[in-house]
């Protein structure tokens, strides 16, 4: 049986609340939590633990950057494909219709910006929606099925 010596210490109220919450979550005594924290503080392997924690965080950041890179590539390809198809399929307008087309384009752009603002405010993201839509498709057309004019064969 290990003998223990009593020691009275003082904690800031918020720190004591954190110790109590951790003790409840782990179902151990507050003394065990404080003893483990002091032992960890006094042990020489704290730099190894810090390095391991930092390595885990860097690995996580690397995975997140990779996911963002993939998302950015999908967005770039999406915009590129849209512009290619739109430019290929849209005939030039005669001079007499250009003013009306500019006005209609400004109106549509305003609607686009309002819709974009609403989607960004709600957190609904295109790539999440896209992945849900793609997963639900039985067979999607492959890249080589798109013709120069943008139609699917």
TrEMBL record:
Residues 132-153 are annotated as: Disordered. This is CopG family transcriptional regulator. It comes from Phenylobacterium haematophilum.
């Amino acid at each position: 049986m290990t003998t223990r010596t009593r020691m009275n210490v003082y904690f800031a109220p918020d720190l004591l609340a954190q110790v109590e919450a951790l003790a409840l979550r782990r179902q151990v005594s507050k003394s065990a939590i404080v003893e483990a924290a002091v032992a960890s503080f006094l042990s020489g392997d704290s730099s190894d633990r810090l390095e391991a924690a930092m390595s885990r965080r860097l690995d996580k950041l690397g995975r997140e950057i990779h996911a963002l890179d993939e998302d950015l590539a999908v967005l770039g390809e999406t915009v590129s494909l849209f512009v290619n198809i739109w430019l290929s399929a849209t005939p030039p307008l005669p001079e007499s219709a250009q003013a009306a087309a500019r006005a209609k384009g400004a109106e549509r752009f305003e609607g686009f910006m309002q819709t974009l603002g609403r989607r960004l405010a709600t957190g609904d993201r295109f790539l999440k929606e896209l992945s849900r839509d793609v997963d639900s498709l039985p067979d999607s057309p492959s890249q080589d099925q798109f013709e120069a004019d943008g139609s699917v064969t």
